[in-house]
Protein backbone atom coordinates (compact mmCIF):
# COMPACT_ATOMS: atom_id res chain seq x y z
CA UNK A 1 0.00 0.00 0.00
CA UNK A 2 1.38 3.35 -1.02
CA UNK A 3 1.79 6.19 1.45
CA UNK A 4 -0.85 8.88 1.57
CA UNK A 5 0.48 12.42 1.79
CA UNK A 6 -2.85 14.17 1.16
CA UNK A 7 -3.98 16.88 3.53
CA UNK A 8 -7.20 16.07 5.34
CA UNK A 9 -10.12 18.01 3.89
CA UNK A 10 -13.42 19.02 5.36
CA UNK A 11 -16.39 16.83 4.61
CA UNK A 12 -17.97 17.66 1.32
CA UNK A 13 -21.20 16.67 -0.32
CA UNK A 14 -19.14 15.72 -3.35
CA UNK A 15 -17.47 12.41 -2.68
CA UNK A 16 -14.67 11.58 -5.03
CA UNK A 17 -13.89 8.03 -5.94
CA UNK A 18 -10.31 6.87 -5.87
CA UNK A 19 -9.15 5.15 -9.02
CA UNK A 20 -6.22 2.89 -9.74
CA UNK A 21 -3.43 3.65 -12.17
CA UNK A 22 0.12 2.44 -12.57
CA UNK A 23 3.50 4.11 -12.25
CA UNK A 24 6.39 2.04 -13.60
CA UNK A 25 4.22 -1.03 -13.25
CA UNK A 26 3.27 -0.39 -9.60
CA UNK A 27 -0.41 0.16 -8.85
CA UNK A 28 -1.13 3.47 -7.14
CA UNK A 29 -4.31 5.38 -6.37
CA UNK A 30 -5.51 8.86 -7.22
CA UNK A 31 -8.62 10.84 -7.96
CA UNK A 32 -10.01 10.99 -11.47
CA UNK A 33 -9.36 14.34 -13.10
CA UNK A 34 -6.60 15.51 -10.79
CA UNK A 35 -3.21 16.09 -12.42
CA UNK A 36 -1.18 12.90 -12.64
CA UNK A 37 1.73 14.64 -10.90
CA UNK A 38 -0.51 15.51 -7.96
CA UNK A 39 -1.67 11.92 -7.63
CA UNK A 40 1.93 10.70 -7.71
CA UNK A 41 3.01 13.29 -5.13
CA UNK A 42 0.13 12.29 -2.84
CA UNK A 43 1.44 8.71 -3.00
CA UNK A 44 4.92 9.89 -2.01
CA UNK A 45 6.36 9.61 -5.52
CA UNK A 46 8.35 12.77 -6.22
CA UNK A 47 10.82 11.41 -8.75
CA UNK A 48 8.98 11.01 -12.03
CA UNK A 49 12.01 10.46 -14.24
CA UNK A 50 15.77 10.89 -14.26
CA UNK A 51 17.82 13.27 -16.36
CA UNK A 52 19.29 11.52 -19.40
CA UNK A 53 22.59 13.42 -19.12
CA UNK A 54 23.20 13.44 -15.36
CA UNK A 55 20.86 10.71 -14.02
CA UNK A 56 19.65 13.24 -11.43
CA UNK A 57 16.06 12.76 -10.26
CA UNK A 58 13.42 14.97 -11.85
CA UNK A 59 9.84 15.72 -10.86
CA UNK A 60 7.47 18.62 -10.45
CA UNK A 61 9.25 21.98 -10.63
CA UNK A 62 6.92 24.68 -11.93
CA UNK A 63 3.64 22.80 -11.71
CA UNK A 64 2.14 24.95 -14.46
CA UNK A 65 3.33 23.35 -17.67
CA UNK A 66 6.37 25.49 -18.45
CA UNK A 67 9.47 23.51 -17.47
CA UNK A 68 8.73 19.95 -18.70
CA UNK A 69 10.56 18.52 -15.68
CA UNK A 70 7.54 16.36 -14.87
CA UNK A 71 7.34 14.69 -18.25
CA UNK A 72 6.68 10.97 -18.49
CA UNK A 73 5.29 8.41 -20.86
CA UNK A 74 1.52 8.25 -20.37
CA UNK A 75 -0.45 5.47 -22.05
CA UNK A 76 2.36 5.07 -24.56
CA UNK A 77 2.70 8.76 -25.39
CA UNK A 78 6.16 10.16 -24.61
CA UNK A 79 6.98 13.52 -23.04
CA UNK A 80 3.59 14.14 -21.46
CA UNK A 81 3.60 16.89 -18.83
CA UNK A 82 2.09 15.10 -15.85
CA UNK A 83 1.35 18.36 -14.05
CA UNK A 84 -1.00 19.31 -16.88
CA UNK A 85 -2.56 15.93 -17.65
CA UNK A 86 -5.70 14.76 -15.87
CA UNK A 87 -5.69 11.30 -14.37
CA UNK A 88 -8.02 8.66 -15.77
CA UNK A 89 -8.84 5.19 -14.51
CA UNK A 90 -6.23 2.66 -15.61
CA UNK A 91 -3.73 5.21 -16.87
CA UNK A 92 -0.24 3.79 -17.33
CA UNK A 93 2.58 6.18 -16.41
CA UNK A 94 6.22 5.34 -17.02
CA UNK A 95 9.38 7.26 -16.28
CA UNK A 96 11.11 8.58 -19.35
CA UNK A 97 14.67 9.75 -18.99
CA UNK A 98 15.05 11.74 -22.15
CA UNK A 99 13.20 13.27 -25.05
CA UNK A 100 11.83 10.73 -27.49
CA UNK A 101 11.52 12.20 -30.95
CA UNK A 102 9.66 10.07 -33.48
CA UNK A 103 11.82 9.21 -36.50
CA UNK A 104 15.03 10.59 -35.02
S1 LIG B 1 6.30 20.71 -13.46
FE1 LIG B 1 6.90 22.11 -14.98
S2 LIG B 1 5.86 21.41 -16.76
FE2 LIG B 1 5.18 20.09 -15.19
UniProtKB/TrEMBL annotation:
Alphabetical list of SUPFAM superfamilies matching this protein: 2Fe-2S ferredoxin-like (SSF54292)
Entry-linked InterPro entries: 2Fe-2S-bd_N (IPR042204), 2Fe-2S_ferredoxin-like_sf (IPR036010)
Highest classification ranks of the organism: Bacteria, Bacillati, Bacillota, Bacilli, Bacillales
Keyword terms: Oxidoreductase
Listed Pfam families: Fer2_4 (PF13510)
Name of the protein described by the UniProt record: (2Fe-2S)-binding protein
Amino acid sequence: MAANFRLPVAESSEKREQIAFTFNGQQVMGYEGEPIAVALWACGIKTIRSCGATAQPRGVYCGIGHCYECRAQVDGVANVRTCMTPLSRGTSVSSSSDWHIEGA
